[in-house]
Design brief:
The complex is a heterotrimer. Chain A has 17 helices and 4 strands. Chain A is an all-alpha fold. In chain A, the strands form 2 sheets. A two-stranded antiparallel ribbon of chain A has the order 1-4. Chain A is globular and about 65 Å long. By secondary structure, chain B is mostly helical. A two-stranded antiparallel sheet of chain B has the order 1-2. The relative contact order of chain B is 0.20. The model of chain B has no long low-confidence stretch (mean pLDDT 83). Chain C has 2 domains: 2-77 and 169-249, P-loop containing nucleotide triphosphate hydrolases (Rossmann fold, 3-Layer(aba) Sandwich); 91-156, no CATH class. Helices cover 40% and strands 23% of the residues of chain C. Chain C contains 10 helices and 10 strands. In chain C, the strands form 2 sheets. In chain C, strands 6-7-8-3-9-10 form a 6-stranded mixed beta sheet, sandwiched between helices. In chain C, β9 (220-225) and β10 (228-233) form a beta hairpin. The relative contact order of chain C is 0.18. Chain C: Pfam families: ABC_tran (PF00005), BCA_ABC_TP_C (PF12399). Chain C: One of its GO terms (molecular function) is ATP binding.
């Protein structure tokens, strides 16, 4: 709680940025990001783009896991659907639809397909809770990758060898530069956080939280479990689909193995590290999860000096690091980094009258 | 008709191995309510340990000759003059490998038990009594840790490991069809079924088994009745690691040693949910059914389609019978 | 208003309810009493739709709702509280009460994602409504931003009542509203229940062990024992009924 944070109208009280700290932080971040887009070097832009794409996916995952309390270990599948959806649509539309219009069709359609598949994968959530759902989503992840890899669909998906992805042309603005992509990704990431935040100011988001906390008492309040669990799955799948679409535009080509279980686990790791069911959780989590490989890369570069036998240890080490992060946070800070920042902010706010 | 029988029998044999893997997941779940998502990686460790003790160590320069290849005079004598691919030859080849197989198995069992104990002691016990969700998610984190860890420890490319039993071809006629099996597959399946049966009997009839079941029913009550719940937890994990070691050794001989062995854990997790988490019988039946379905799929559609059979099957089963084919529905008290 | 007709319910071999029939009159407080295990909570669960009766019907406002899902019943106007408080513990009092408005609000997914516009207007109007009609009424304005876990038991019960009131129910089911409360808290709660009846004209069905309170505020009482309905009538009639006395005090009395 913030001291002296008094309101004179209900509208003021219902604002998202309901105190001056939050306002300063968010507006400050917008300025910083604008400056970043203009002045950061190419490497930083690259890393930031990865963060932005992953952030959109993790915010989506947060809706299902963090707010609705449905476990999913297969959200990489929806990213795959988004990425492949956009690519396939571009290839199908080539020649008939003008390039400058294509993204405006391809992205919404790919996102809608992801949402639909999300509803299908979410169906078991009506009957079962927790574990069963985790395994069902895991199964869905394997099935989606399997379908993409099939020779039968290879003419569209490229099969095991992957496929080249298009560069987006937004009504004449061709985003062939990473810096331009960064602007697009940052705008989408910001919009994603905002819309999800909006959700929780209305009955829809409250219904999700009610289902997470105690589902029979949610029913007694008139919340249809069927409708809202599926809605939750659809929303999160849609955001993951959007992340996939941006990912397809960002990279020159995509491979099915990018979207395997390892990616699903990374998303979950980001959520646990950052803090589930909190707005800033995905932000902190994604920063950590994307930084880990980069830090390992730098350390390895310094240690190995280009020795290939040492360099091949990097991938397994990185994998272990994700696992250790999940375990460490579950054991020592299960509410994630958000909880740490909460404590720091509270202490600052009360200082010098009280500690902690 | 003939093919169906052949593939059916193959399917039953791999189903038995699934059952052996599943028993580890079910035992840990029964005792601790934790579904071990990393069980497949425990099995992968078992396979790598078997590989270490049966292939890597004998390959060291200091390894005694009998360990590398046991060839007493009578064995060499018997081998002389045998035709290629004779059944007796296969048995004799196996005898040559026997010391490696035995040391490999013992080593795998011991090393895997240590791994299981470490997981229980360092990761599970501190979370005991707090949140089952956190414990389950810790096993999810373990997936990455163990998969990366194995690649760090065993960088060598692994291919051949000695089979647990003589690889004699077996031919017989059943309903007027020629059936062809490898001896080692048959023995593997028999080992799997016997172990499964032994563990179920242990849980049903021994004192330790009763403690496990009591803990499953109500942890705090069991604790207050004088059952050492931490010890039950530890036992369950050791049991899972031991069965995992055997399953790992079997999978190593069948599929080769590689990090992708861990993926078996996920197919078997699907099987376990199909059978119902708390039902040994249900899980056993589900394992056999999936084994047969896989074999049939392999026959009709090809090998790579077989891989997703458990996943498709579990989705269908969950939609129709949410608590598995044989699981009990928990009655919710309000 | 709410009519129970020959309700039978069993779990395996256990017969939880055997032929319960009574009617809760509109605008009245009806009490359901009985010793532990008499089937009171099972009756509530059958009314709110968690259990499907084996036989018998539940009528709401002349409409058969026997096979209806719990959330649909809530939308019709049946609210309830639970014996062991079923609030959302991580949320604040205000959010809990807002959840009660779920069925009254209309915002859909698209409106919610956009927020600004109709959704915001509806939310603010709703906020004003619950502030005035629920939070002020139950005298919990000082704790509206406090998380549930930080509240004492008596206040939690009151918040749960508030959440039910936010639904603007026609029928309110209260499962042991004063269980475990001291005399003062009980008196407060009884006053709030009477106020609800008086101010909103809500039909109230109440399960309670506290005999004094039941006799004081109920117009009509139904007595259950071992799943059977052993008596029904006004507080005076029931308290003099020999079957009831026997059930509560044993045959010797």
């Amino acid at each position: 709680m913030i001291n002296g944070n008094l309101k004179a109208s209900y509208a003021d009280d219902e604002r998202v940025l309901d105190n001056s700290y939050k306002k300063a932080f968010v507006y400050g971040m917008m300025v910083v990001l604008a400056g970043f887009a203009a002045f950061a070097n190419d490497y930083l832009i690259l890393v930031a783009c990865q963060m932005g794409i992953m952030l959109i996916a993790v915010v989506g995952l947060n809706v299902v896991i963090g707010y609705t309390g449905l476990m999913s270990l297969g959200h990489a599948a929806f990213i795959a659907v988004g990425a492949y959806g956009v690519t396939i649509l571009h290839n199908l539309g080539a020649g008939t639809v003008p390039d400058a219009v294509m993204p405006f069709i391809a992205v919404p359609v790919a996102v809608a397909i992801s949402a639909l598949i999300g509803i299908v994968v979410g169906l078991p959530s009506l009957r079962v809770k927790g574990l069963y759902l985790a395994v069902a989503t895991l199964a869905a992840n394997f099935i989606v990758i399997f379908v993409i890899e099939q020779d039968l669909f290879a003419p569209w998906t490229g099969g095991m060898t992957g496929i080249e992805t298009p560069a987006p042309n937004l009504a004449g603005w061709v985003l062939d530069d990473k810096r331009e992509m960064f602007v697009l990704i940052a705008v989408f990431a910001f919009a994603t956080i905002l819309t999800v935040q909006n959700l929780f100011r209305t009955r829809v988001g409250r219904a999700f939280i009610a289902i997470r906390d105690r589902d029979y008492s949610a029913e007694i309040l008139g919340i249809s479990l069927l409708r809202f669990k599926l809605t939750s799955f659809a929303i999160s799948a849609a955001f993951c689909g959007l992340a996939g679409a941006l990912l397809a535009y960002f990279y020159a080509s995509i491979l099915p193995e990018q979207f395997e279980l390892a990616l699903s686990l990374q998303l979950v790791a980001a959520l646990i590290v950052g803090g589930m069911g909190r707005t800033m959780g995905p932000v902190f989590g994604v920063i950590v999860i994307v930084m880990v490989p980069e830090v390992i890369k730098v350390v390895f570069g310094a240690v190995s000096g280009g020795d290939p036998s040492v360099a091949q240890l990097r991938a397994p080490l990185q994998e272990m690091a994700f696992g250790f992060l999940i375990i460490f946070f579950l054991m020592f800070e299960p509410l994630g980094i958000v909880h740490i920042t909460d404590r720091i902010l509270r202490a600052l706010n009360r200082w010098p009258f009280a500690r902690g | 008709m003939g093919q169906i029988l052949q593939f059916g029998i193959n399917g039953l044999m791999s189903g038995a191995i699934y059952a052996l893997i599943a028993v580890g997941i079910v035992s840990v779940f029964k005792a601790t309510k934790v579904v071990n998502f990393a069980h497949g990686y425990l099995i992968m460790f078992g396979a790598y340990f078997y590989f270490t003790f049966a292939v890597l160590l004998p390959g060291m320069s200091w390894a005694p000759a009998w360990y590398v290849s046991w060839e007493p005079a009578w064995l060499v004598e018997m081998k002389e003059g045998l035709p290629m691919f004779s059944p007796l030859g296969a048995v004799l080849d196996w005898l040559t490998n026997l010391p490696r197989v035995i040391i490999g198995l013992i080593g795998a069992l011991a090393a895997n038990a240590v791994v299981g104990l470490i997981i229980e002691r360092v990761l599970m016990r501190p979370l005991m009594g707090q949140s089952v969700f956190a414990m389950i998610m810790v096993t999810v984190g373990l997936i990455s840790v163990m998969s990366g860890g194995a690649q760090l420890i065993w960088t060598a490319d692994a291919n051949y490991v000695p089979s647990l039993a003589p690889n004699t071809p077996i031919r017989f006629t059943l309903f007027d069809t020629q059936i062809f099996l490898f001896g080692t597959d048959l023995v593997n399946a028999v080992i799997a079924v016997l172990l499964f049966g032994a563990i179920v009997a242990m849980v049903q009839f021994t004192k330790g088994g009763v403690a496990i079941r009591a803990t499953a029913e109500d942890q705090s009550t069991a604790y207050s009745m004088g059952i050492s719940v931490p010890r039950v937890f530890a036992r369950a994990w050791v049991l899972a690691s031991l069965t995992g070691a055997i399953a790992g050794a079997i999978l190593a001989t069948r599929n080769g040693v590689s990090p992708s062995l861990g993926l078996f854990g996920f197919s078997v997790l699907a099987i376990v949910l199909m059978g119902g988490l708390d039902s040994y019988v249900g899980v056993f039946i589900a394992a056999l059914v999936v084994g047969v379905l896989e074999a049939m799929t392999q026959w009709k559609f090809g090998g790579d389609w077989a891989g997703i059979v458990p996943y498709v099957a579990v989705l269908l089963v969950i939609l129709v019978r949410p608590h598995g084919l044989f699981g009990q529905k928990e009655v919710e008290r309000i | 208003m709410l009519k129970i007709e020959d309700l039978h319910l069993s779990f395996g071999g256990i017969k939880a309810l055997q032929g319960i029939s009574f009617e809760a009159q509109a605008g009245e407080i009806t009490g359901v009493i009985g010793p532990n295990g008499a089937g009171k909570t099972s009756l509530f669960n059958a009314i709110s739709g968690f259990y499907q009766p084996d036989r018998g019907r539940v009528w709401f406002d002349g409409r058969d709702i026997t096979g209806m899902a719990p959330d649909r019943r809530a939308a019709l106007g049946i609210a309830r509280t639970f014996q062991n408080i079923a609030l959302f513990r991580g949320m604040t009092v205000l959010d809990n009460i807002k959840l009660g408005g779920h069925t009254r609000l209309k915002t859909g997914l698209w409106g919610a994602l956009r927020y600004f516009g109709p959704a915001q207007r509806e939310e603010l109007e709703f906020r004003r409504d619950i502030e005035e009609r629920v939070i002020d009424f139950l005298e919990i304005d000082h704790i509206r931003k406090v998380p549930i876990t930080a509240l004492p038991y008596g206040l939690q019960k009151r918040v749960e009542l508030g959440r039910a009131l936010a639904m603007r129910p026609q029928v309110l089911l209260l499962d042991e509203p004063v269980a475990g409360m001291n005399r003062e808290e009980t008196a407060d709660m009884a006053r709030f229940i009477l106020d609800v009846q008086e101010r909103f004209g809500t039909t109230i069905l109440l399960v309670e062990h506290d005999m004094h309170m039941v006799m004081d505020i109920c117009a009509h009482i139904v007595v259950l024992n071992f799943g059977q309905q052993i008596a029904e009538g006004s507080p005076q009639e029931v308290s003099q009924n020999p079957a009831v006395i026997e059930a509560y005090l044993g045959a010797a009395a």
